[in-house]
Fold this protein.
Amino acid sequence: MPGTTDQYEGMIAETIRIPGHNGDRIHAYYAHPVGPGPFPSVVWLHHFPGWDEWSKETARKLAYHGYATLAPDLYCRDGHGAPEDMAARVRANGGVPDAQVVGDAAACRDFLRSQPNSNGKVGVTGTCSGGRHAVLAASCAPGYNALIDFWGGGVVVRPEDLTAMRPVAPVDYTKDLDCPILGIFGNDDRAPTPEQVDIHEAELKKHGKTYEFHRYDGAGHGFFYYDRPQAYRAEQAVDGWRKVLDFFQRNLGN
Amino acid sequence: MCTNIVERTNVSGGGRGAQGWFTLAEVSVSYDHPFHVQLEHALNIDFTNESAGVGARVAVELTLESAKELARALKAAVDRADQYEATGYA
C-alpha cells in the first residue's frame, strides 16, 4: 500500500496452481503485499483478450494498493500458448462456460480468505468479459464483500442470444447478489450500451441492492486500456481508478 | 465473446504462421474485440489447426467495410474458379 518514503513496501507476484471449479488444477497469478497484514483481497477476472500483460499488471497495481489479488487463468483448461492465441481459441469456441467461471472465482475467493494474513474480506472484479464474469460470480456464489463491474458486456441479454455455455442472463441473478456493486461504464460503449446499463441499474434498484454506477462521457469500451490508444481516455480512467480504490477501501478495508 | 458473433467451419489448405507453413484445419470468423487493430470490434479471421497446437494460427483483423470487400472479392474469385474448372475459361 502506498505509504511514506521511509516505509518498507514489497510484494510477491507469481504463478500458482489452485484447485478451481470441480477441483481442476488451474493456474492463477497471485500478486500480494508482503507483511503480516491483515490484508483485504480481490479476485481479479481477466478480460476477453486473456490472461495477458495488462491483466497481470493490474493485479500488481491492486497489490501495490494493499490487496492480495488472485487472477485465475480462465482459459487454463483450453490449453497453453501466447495469451492472444489462447483467447482466439476460446473465442472460436464461443467462450468458457459460465458455471466454470463461477466455480473458479469461488475457489480463488476461498483461497484468499483462508490465508493467515487475510482480513477476511474479498472482492471480485474484472473488465470486459471479466466484468460480466464478476457479476455472475458474485450473484451465483454468494460470499463476496464487494463487486466491481468494469464495462461488462452481455450482462443484459436477449433470450435468443443465450447459449449452452451462457444459459442465463447475469442480470436475472440480481436478486441473489449479496454485496455492494460499483459499476464503471463509458457512455459511448456498445457492449454494454447505456440502455443495457439502465436495465441493470433498474434491476438493482428493484431488488434494493447497494450500488454505485459511474458513467463517463467521451469514453467507450475499455477506456482504462492505456495500450489501446483508440480506447484509452486518461481523464476518465484516472477518475475511475480513484472511485475503484475508494470503493474497495470502504468495503474491504480493515 | 463479448458479441457472441462467431462462425466456424473446417477448411483444407495451408497457411503461413509464426513458425512457418502448416496445414490448415479450421477457420473461425468473428466480429468481436481485436488484439491489434485499433477498433472496438473488428472482423477477425483465424485460420488454425488445433491438433498442431494453439500457436498454429494465421490471424487477420479487418474493418467491417474491408471484410465486406474481401467477401465480395472472395465470391468473385470463387465463381471464376468454378467456371474455369468447368470450362477451361475464366
About this structure: Residues 64-87 of chain B form the longest helix (24 residues). The CA atoms of residues 46 and 61 of chain B lie 9 Å apart. The helical segments of chain B are 64-87. The mean pLDDT of chain B is 95.
